[in-house]
C-alpha cells in the first residue's frame, strides 16, 4: 500500500540575505555579461574571445568526490542551486577532482544522486533544441591542460617559480603570524630556468616531493596565503579520470579559481574558511586576464558561514571513520547526517530544503540545534502524512465482558478514523475492535502518579473508600473501565483487564454522555500486523561531539538504534517501502524493506524519523 500523500506545501518566499543583495546589485548594474562557450569549458583557447550572452548569474556546487554529501553540503546546495533558480541563472555541479588519491566513482555517483534527490538540476533549457537541455556537470580534471598552460604563462611572466627547497626549509622560511617569511634561494632564477624546471617536473624527471611550483607574490605579506603559495606538486598517482597522464597535480587554491573562470561562474560562493584565500583568488584571475588567458568579467568569491549541527559531525573524514570502523552500517545508515542517511531515515527533500531556508545564510559561524531539522520534518509531514495507530511497547488489554457487551464472544466491532484529520479527501481507515487489544505498556500504571489519566486498577483511597478503576477511551472505539490486571511469574504486568462501558462508541449519539480524561491508541489483537520497528536517536550524546579536540568516538550514543517488536493497524499490512505515516501519539515513521523473514510471521518494518515533539532535551 502506498499511503495517499498530499503534495508538499509550496515553499515560502525565500528570505533576504546578503548574497541576494549582492546578486541583485550586480544584475541591476549589468555587470554579469557572460561568455558563451562553443565547446566545453576545458577547451579554453577561445575563452577570452568568446561572445557575450545575456546577463545571468552562474553559480556552482563543487564537491570533492572523496565521500558522501552531508547536511552541511545541503546548505551549500540549496544556496547555490536556489540562487540560480531564483534569479534565472544556472548552477553547475562540478566535481573538484584535482587530488588523485582519494577520489572514487562510488562517491561521484552518490553525489549526483543526492543532489537530484534534493530536487536540484544542473541542466539549462536549450531553446534551439528543447529535447536536449545543456548539462552543466563538470570535472575539474578536464581542465588540467589549461591549468598547466596557465602555470607556464605565470612562469614566463615572472609570476611563478619552481622551488626546490625541502619541505622543512620551506616551512622555516614561511614565517608565522608575527614574523614575515624570507625568500627561497631558488626564487631569483630567471623565468627561462624556471620554465625548464617546470617542464622537467611535468615530464617525470624529478621524484615526488622534490620541487613545487609556487606563485611569486610576497614572502612578507601579512596574509600568509600570499607568501608564495604552492600551485603544483609532483605526485605519481593514478587519477580516476586522467589515469597516469600527469605526475604533477594542481593545488586546490590554484585550481579552483581557474575552474570558476573557465565555466563563466559569476558568484563563487564558499564557506568562511576561504576568506583569507580571496586575495589570492583575485591575484591569480587578474593576472591571467591581463595575460590574455582569461576574459573579463571574471568570477568573484563570496563567503558565508558553514553549517554546524548539534549531535552530528559534518566532516567527511570523521564520517568515513564511522563507516570504515563499523560504528554505523554504512554511509546511508539512518543515523548518519549524510543525505543518503537522512533519506534512508525518512526525511523528505522538502523538509531539508525547508530547514536550509530557515537557518538562512550569514557571514558568521553558528551552531544550529538538531531539533530545527526535526521541526522542519514535522512541518512538512504534519499536513500530508496519513495517520495510523501503532503499538510500540505492547501490553495486552483483555475486555472481560466482551461476550455480554456484544452478545457474542467472536464479535468484532467495526471502527473508522480519518486517514488525515484535516484532509477529508484522503478518506477513512477501517479496523475493528475485539475482546483483546494491544495497548502501550506505559498506558497502564498499577499505582498511578498524580495527574495520570490512563489505565489504573480499582483501589482503596486514603479515606478507606473503595474507588473503581479508571475509565479510558480506546480512540475511535469505546470507553472501557479498568477492573484489574495480571502479572507473570516474574511479577511483571502481563495484561490489563477492563469492561466495556455501554453506549460509548465513538461517532454514536450517546458517545459523549460519559466523560473521560484519557484517550489511548490501540490495535485489535485479532487483526494487528506484527511490526519490526526501529527507533533511532541521536548518534552522539554530546551536542558538539568533537568540541575541544575530544575524540568524537568516545561520545557515541549506545542507544542510537533500538529495535522493537510492535503492532500496527491492519491497513499497513502491505506498506510500501518509503511511504510515511504519522503514528498517532508517537511521531513520523517510514516503511522499510521487510525484515529478512525467519518465520512466517508476516512482519512489516518501520523506522522512526522523528517524534511528535522534541523530547531530546529531557
Ligand atoms: P569536509 O570538510 O567534510 O571534507 P569539504 O568542505 O571539504 O567537507 P567539499 O566536497 O569540498 O567538502 O565541499 C563542497 C562544498 O560544500 C564546498 O563548497 C563547501 O563550501 C560546502 N560545504 C562543506 N561543508 C559545509 C558546511 N558544513 N556548511 C556549508 N557548506 C559546506
Ligand atoms: Mg573541500
The CATH architecture name of the domain at 310-382 and 528-618 reads Orthogonal Bundle
Poorly predicted segments: 4-12, 44-52
State the total count of DSSP E strands: 33
Note the overall shape.
elongated
Q: Report the end-to-end length measured between terminal Cα atoms.
A: 36 Å
Class by alpha and beta content = alpha/beta
Number of helices, where a helix is a run of at least 4 consecutive DSSP H or I residues: 13
Q: How many strands, what sense, and barrel or not for the largest sheet?
A: 7 strands, mixed
What is the gyration radius calculated from CA atoms? Answer: 32 Å
CATH class of the domain at 310-382 and 528-618 reads: Mainly Alpha
CATH topology of the domain at 310-382 and 528-618: Glutamyl-tRNA Synthetase, domain 2
Bound molecules: adenosine-5'-triphosphate, magnesium ion
User: Mind telling me the CATH superfamily name of the domain at 310-382 and 528-618?
Assistant: Glutamyl-trna Synthetase, Domain 2
Describe the strand arrangement of the main beta sheet, using strand numbers: 16-31-32-33-29-30-17
Helix content: 10-25%
Mean model confidence by pLDDT: 92
Give the amount of beta strand, in percent.
15-25%
Amino acid at each position: 500500500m502506498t499511503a495517499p500523500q498530499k503534495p508538499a506545501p509550496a515553499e515560502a518566499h525565500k528570505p533576504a540575505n546578503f548574497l541576494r543583495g549582492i546578486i541583485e546589485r550586480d544584475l541591476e548594474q549589468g555587470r554579469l555579461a557572460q561568455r558563451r562557450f562553443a565547446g566545453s569549458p576545458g577547451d579554453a583557447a577561445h575563452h577570452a574571445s568568446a561572445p557575450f550572452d545575456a546577463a545571468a548569474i552562474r553559480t556552482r556546487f563543487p564537491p570533492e568526490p572523496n565521500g558522501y554529501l552531508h547536511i552541511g553540503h545541503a546548505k551549500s546546495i540549496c544556496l547555490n542551486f536556489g540562487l540560480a533558480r531564483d534569479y534565472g541563472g544556472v548552477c553547475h555541479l562540478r566535481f573538484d577532482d584535482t587530488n588523485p588519491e582519494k577520489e572514487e566513482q562510488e562517491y561521484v555517483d552518490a553525489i549526483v544522486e543526492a543532489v537530484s534527490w534534493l530536487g536540484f538540476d544542473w541542466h539549462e533549457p536549450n531553446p534551439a533544441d528543447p529535447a536536449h537541455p545543456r548539462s552543466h556537470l563538470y570535472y575539474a580534471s578536464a581542465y588540467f591542460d589549461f591549468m598547466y598552460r596557465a602555470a607556464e604563462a605565470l612562469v614566463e611572466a615572472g609570476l611563478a617559480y619552481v622551488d626546490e627547497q625541502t619541505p622543512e626549509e620551506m616551512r622555516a622560511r614561511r614565517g608565522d603570524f608575527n614574523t614575515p617569511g624570507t625568500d627561497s634561494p631558488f626564487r631569483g632564477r630567471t623565468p627561462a630556468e624556471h620554465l625548464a624546471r617546470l617542464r622537467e617536473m611535468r615530464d617525470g624527471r624529478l621524484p615526488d616531493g622534490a620541487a613545487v611550483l609556487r606563485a611569486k607574490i610576497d614572502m612578507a605579506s601579512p596574509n600568509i596565503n600570499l607568501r608564495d603559495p604552492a600551485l603544483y606538486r609532483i605526485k605519481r598517482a593514478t587519477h580516476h579520470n586522467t589515469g597516469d597522464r600527469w605526475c604533477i597535480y594542481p593545488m586546490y587554491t590554484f585550481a579552483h579559481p581557474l575552474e570558476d573562470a573557465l565555466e563563466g561562474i559569476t558568484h563563487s560562493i564558499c564557506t568562511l574558511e576561504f576568506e583569507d584565500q580571496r586575495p589570492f583568488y583575485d591575484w591569480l584571475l587578474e593576472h591571467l586576464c591581463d595575460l590574455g588567458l582569461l576574459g573579463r568579467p571574471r568570477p568573484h568569491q563570496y563567503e558565508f558561514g558553514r553549517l554546524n549541527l548539534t549531535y552530528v559531525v559534518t566532516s567527511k573524514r570523521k564520517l568515513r571513520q564511522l563507516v570504515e570502523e563499523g560504528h554505523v552500517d554504512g554511509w546511508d545508515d539512518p543515523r548518519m547526517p549524510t543525505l543518503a542517511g537522512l533519506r534512508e531515515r525518512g526525511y523528505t527533500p522538502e523538509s531539508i530544503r525547508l530547514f536550509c531556508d530557515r537557518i538562512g545564510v550569514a557571514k558568521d559561524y553558528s551552531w544550529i540545534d538538531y531539533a530545527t531539522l526535526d521541526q522542519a520534518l514535522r512541518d512538512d509531514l504534519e499536513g500530508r502524512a496519513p495517520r495510523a495507530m501503532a503499538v510500540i511497547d505492547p501490553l495486552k488489554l483483555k475486555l472481560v465482558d466482551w461476550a455480554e457487551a456484544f452478545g457474542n464472544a467472536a464479535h468484532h466491532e467495526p471502527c473508522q478514523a480519518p486517514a488525515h484529520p484535516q484532509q477529508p479527501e484522503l478518506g477513512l481507515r477501517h479496523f475493528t475492535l475485539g475482546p483483546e487489544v494491544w495497548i502501550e505498556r506505559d498506558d497502564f500504571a498499577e499505582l498511578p502518579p498524580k495527574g495520570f489519566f490512563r489505565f489504573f486498577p480499582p483501589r482503596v483511597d486514603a479515606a478507606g473508600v473503595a474507588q473503581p478503576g479508571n475509565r479510558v477511551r480506546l480512540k475511535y472505539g469505546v470507553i472501557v473501565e479498568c477492573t484489574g490486571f495480571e502479572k507473570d511469574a516474574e511479577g511483571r504486568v502481563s495484561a490489563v483487564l477492563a469492561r466495556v462501558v455501554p453506549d460509548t462508541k465513538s461517532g454514536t449519539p450517546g458517545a459523549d454522555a460519559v466523560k473521560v480524561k484519557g484517550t489511548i491508541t490501540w490495535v485489535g489483537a485479532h487483526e494487528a500486523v506484527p511490526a519490526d520497528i526501529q527507533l533511532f536517536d541521536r548518534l552522539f550524546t554530546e551536542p558538539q561531539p568533537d568540541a575541544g579536540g575530544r575524540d568524537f568516538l568516545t561520545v557515541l550514543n549506545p542507544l542510537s538504534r533500538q529495535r522493537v517488536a510492535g503492532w500496527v493497524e491492519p491497513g499497513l499490512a502491505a506498506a510500501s517501502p518509503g511511504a510515511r505515516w504519522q503514528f498517532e501519539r508517537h511521531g513520523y515513521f517510514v516503511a522499510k524493506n521487510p525484515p529478512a523473514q525467519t518465520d512466517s510471521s508476516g512482519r512489516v518494518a518501520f523506522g522512526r524519523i522523528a517524534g511528535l515533539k522534541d523530547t531530546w532535551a529531557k
